């Protein structure tokens, strides 16, 4: 399956916008995490934590799945292929990991932190250890997104073994009998 130029551009726009949205959500959550960790104002802390849950709870799943699906469609529908080039295969693995961590670790953690904030709405700060946990997903996801961006721009590593086999097979098929 090869995408027409019009469809390729459309899917590319969807992929770039959803990927930037995912990064934007992460950066907003970074600011809210810093606010929740470093403020001594319980109301501000609770508001930051509850906003992280609102933003993450409503936006992370559709945005991350859109980035994943559009990336797969784009790679399958273009010359790059899904596992033909190392940089595409690495991006696929990183996106699958990031999506899995979002669904099975980050979102449950945000919901648990929001529940802790709601249970201490009487002016008590959420315990510091629970707040600092929010830094790890931000560091991991930001590093992954930066890596995927570098891979998309520089396209390092050449073809995978599968990609070399496909190229060799196609070259043999084009030779006259």
Mind sketching the topology for me?
Elements: H1 5-38, H2 42-76, H3 86-119, H4 128-132, H5 135-154, H6 161-174
Helix pairs in contact: 1-2, 1-5, 2-3, 3-5
Main pleated sheet: none
In DSSP terms (H or I, runs of 4 or more residues), the helix count works out at: 6
In total, how many domains does the architecture comprise? 1
Described by the principal axes of the CA atoms, the overall outline is elongated
Report mean pLDDT, rounded to a whole number: 91
List the secondary-structure elements in sequence, H or E. Answer: HHHHHH
Oligomer: single chain
Helix vs. strand class: mainly alpha
Low-confidence stretches: none
- Proportion of residues in helical segments: over 70%
End-to-end Cα distance, whole Å, is: 26 Å
Rg measurement, Å: 21 Å
> How many DSSP E strands?
0
Binned strand content: under 5%
Organism: Amycolatopsis thailandensis
Keywords: Membrane, Transmembrane, Transmembrane helix
Protein name: DUF2269 domain-containing protein
Q: What would your notes on this structure say?
A:
It contains 6 helices and no strands. By secondary structure, it is mostly helical. It has one domain (5-174). Helix 1 packs antiparallel against helix 2 (42-76). The mean pLDDT is 91.
What's this, in brief?
The chain is 80% helix and 0% strand. The chain has helices at 5-38, 42-76, 86-119, 128-132, 135-154, 161-174.
Question: Which descriptors would you attach to this protein?
Answer:
DUF2269 domain-containing protein; transmembrane helix; 177 residues; elongated; mainly alpha; 6 helices; transmembrane; 0% strand
